[in-house]
Amino acid sequence: MTTTLRIGAHVDQADPIAEAAARQAPLVQFFLGDPQGYHGPELRYAGGAEALRRDAEAAGVALYVHAPYLVNVATTNNRIRIPSRKLLQQHVDAAAAIGAQGLVVHGGHLNKADDPEKGFDNWRKAVEATDLKVPVLIENTAGGDNAMARHLDRIGRLWDAISSATGADMVGFCLDTCHAHAGGIDLATVVADVRAITGRIDLVHCNDSRDAADSGADRHTSLGAGRIDPELLAAVVREAGAPVVCETPGGPEEHLADFAWLRARV
Predict the structure, then answer these.
(1) 51 band by pLDDT with thresholds 50, 70 and 90
(2) What's the rounded Cα separation, in Å, for the pair 40 and 27?
(3) 213: domain CATH number?
């Protein structure tokens, strides 16, 4: 458990340092390029990677990169898995170049008829095939019956597979509260349950949910404006003791309100 809540937000990547300053935040998360494209990372910061690394260090701002949503290294579809592995390596390299603390990647999914074990093993192969220059933080997801990281039992089997891979020590976990709620995980015990499986929680995505528990709907909303019990939401952050990113709507004003809401309860 941490005594000081380190909280930031997902922001536009053009100037993460200015975005952090506007939110008085010690950390920010952003995409590098198109979150829905296979085109590879694109850094828009003036001066490039070295300038961003230097300026972030000078400002005391920790950087986290979120991989594109379509990265799915678990799938049995070669047309998706092979480009996904390439994209994962490209984003690891780009995240390392800017001095990022980690790269957040969704757990991915298989087709309904596929054997889940193939997906877990594909993750193992991806870990072994990737030069992990920064920690890869696998994020739990909200929907899909054949998702790799929606339910706790699947996360457990995924971790069992990954644990045998060379480079497994560079794989961490990002706990998303909206995804856990919408995915049917009990927020009252999620921190202990995840830690029992992974041994770690490296980052928390603290988001409220527009939809009911176990809805499978990935729709974030501002803290206190959704369907998650406020005390449960605060308890997850308190117990996890990890850095926090709010992926909630709005800009600096709305995010500062989210930060204040959370600090008042944690």
Answers:
(1) very high
(2) 24
(3) 3.20.20.150
Q: Please give the residue range of the domain that contains residue 220.
A: 32-225
Distance CA 212, CA 235 (A): 19
* 112 falls within a domain: yes
Question: 208-209 and 220-221: which strand pairing?
Answer: antiparallel
Half-sphere exposure of 251 (CA within 13 A, CB side): 4
215-238 pLDDT tens trace: 999 999 999 999 999 999 999 999
Does 202 reside within a domain?
yes
Q: How many of the other CB atoms lie within 10 Å of CB of 30?
A: 23
Give which of 164, 152, 68 is closest to 123, Cα–Cα.
Answer: 164
- Residue 241's Cβ-side half-sphere holds a number of Cα atoms within 13 Å equal to 7
Query: Total structural domains in the chain?
Result: 1
Query: What Cα–Cα distance (Å) separates residue 98 from each residue in 28, 89, 113, 167, 215?
Result: 13, 15, 40, 21, 37
How many other C-beta atoms lie within 10 A of the C-beta of residue 199?
Answer: 11
